[in-house]
Structure formats: structure tokens, C-alpha cells
Structure to design on (192 residues):
């Protein structure tokens, strides 16, 4: 990133702000999102960029980004319904249109215990206890009002444990987050 008038080989430090998102980036800077962010920062530094990171509560982070105090905001998580997800309430509408959600790729997967049928479609979970992570985008069919018994869970590791202990029947989670959690805490008794 360069400012006008700078030589192209002179780079300003990148100011990267990131916020707590339960189940993705925890307050103690742990979780799958922290690992993804660490990888991104390491790659930028390997290419010669200086990256300064700052962890803030997410609402303060959005405000600071809108005031130009950060170059990068992580994670902006795309939701299918912007007004419900905080587009107006949290200030996302002031973020420039050129800003793209950092974490928008991949797909959702449905985890269940191996002694239960594999599910490939959310619609097959009606009348089942479905776990989702609190504050994270989920397929719109699971948004209230809904026919599904949705239980919001505060952490990804906790969500997998609840599934293993039969406190929920299925877990709908983003595939990348799930892979990171399962790499650290294998769950051989689950399938997707």
C-alpha cells in the first residue's frame, strides 16, 4: 500500500484491525479466525509488508475503520440479509463498496453423529435440534421465525462437544472453521 507521491517500492505499514467474533476469534485471541489471520499476516510480512495488528471489540473496530484509522478490517463476514445482520445498526453501510468481505469463501456443512443419518441439506433438519454459532452468518432458512429448533452456541469447540454429547442433533458450520477446530480437537464419531 503506498500513498500518492511515494516511490512504488516504499510501503507504508498496513494497519489491520480485527474483532472478537464468538466461535471464530475469541477475546483471548484464539480460535480458527485468529489462525487464519496469523497466516495472512505471516504471508504479507514474507512479501516485505509491515503489518500492525490491533484487536478491538467489533463495534469499535467498525467505527475506527469508518474513520480511516485502519486499512484492513478482519473479519467482515458476509450475511445474506444485511439489514438483519447489522448493516444499518453497526455501520456496515458506511464501509466503501470496494470493501469485500475477507471471509466469504467456502460453504456450510452439516455435522452429525455417525450413528445418525448424514444430512446434505438444511431442509432435512426440520424438527431436529440444530446448533449454530452465535453471531455468525447461517443459511437464511435457519433465521427466526423458523420451523427449525435452532440453538445458538458461543464457541466452535463447545458446539462440537454438544453434538458429540447428543445435546444437539446436527451442527451447521462453515467448512473452513470446522476444519480448523477439528484439526485441533479430532472428532472421529462425527461425519458430514
Amino acid at each position: 500500500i503506498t500513498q500518492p507521491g511515494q516511490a512504488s517500492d516504499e510501503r507504508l505499514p498496513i494497519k489491520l484491525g480485527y474483532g472478537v467474533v464468538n466461535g471464530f476469534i475469541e477475546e483471548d485471541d484464539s480460535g480458527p479466525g485468529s489462525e487464519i489471520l496469523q497466516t495472512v499476516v505471516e504471508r504479507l510480512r514474507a512479501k516485505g509488508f509491515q503489518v500492525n495488528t490491533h484487536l478491538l471489540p467489533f463495534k469499535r473496530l467498525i467505527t475506527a475503520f469508518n474513520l480511516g484509522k485502519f486499512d484492513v478490517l478482519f473479519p467482515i463476514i458476509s450475511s445474506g440479509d444485511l439489514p438483519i445482520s447489522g448493516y444499518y445498526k453497526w455501520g456496515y453501510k458506511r464501509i466503501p463498496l470496494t470493501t469485500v468481505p475477507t471471509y466469504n469463501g467456502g460453504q456450510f456443512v452439516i455435522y452429525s453423529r455417525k450413528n445418525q443419518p448424514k444430512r446434505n441439506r438444511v431442509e432435512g433438519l426440520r424438527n431436529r435440534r440444530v446448533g449454530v454459532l452465535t453471531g455468525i452468518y447461517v443459511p437464511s432458512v435457519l433465521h427466526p421465525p423458523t420451523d427449525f429448533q435452532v440453538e445458538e452456541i458461543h464457541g466452535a469447540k463447545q458446539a462440537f462437544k454438544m453434538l458429540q454429547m447428543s445435546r444437539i442433533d446436527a451442527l451447521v458450520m462453515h467448512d473452513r472453521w470446522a476444519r480448523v477446530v477439528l484439526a485441533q480437537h479430532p472428532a472421529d464419531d462425527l461425519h458430514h
Notes: Strands lie at 14-19, 51-56, 72-74, 108-113, 129-133, 149-153, 170-174, 190-191. Helices lie at 32-46, 58-66, 82-85, 156-164, 175-184.
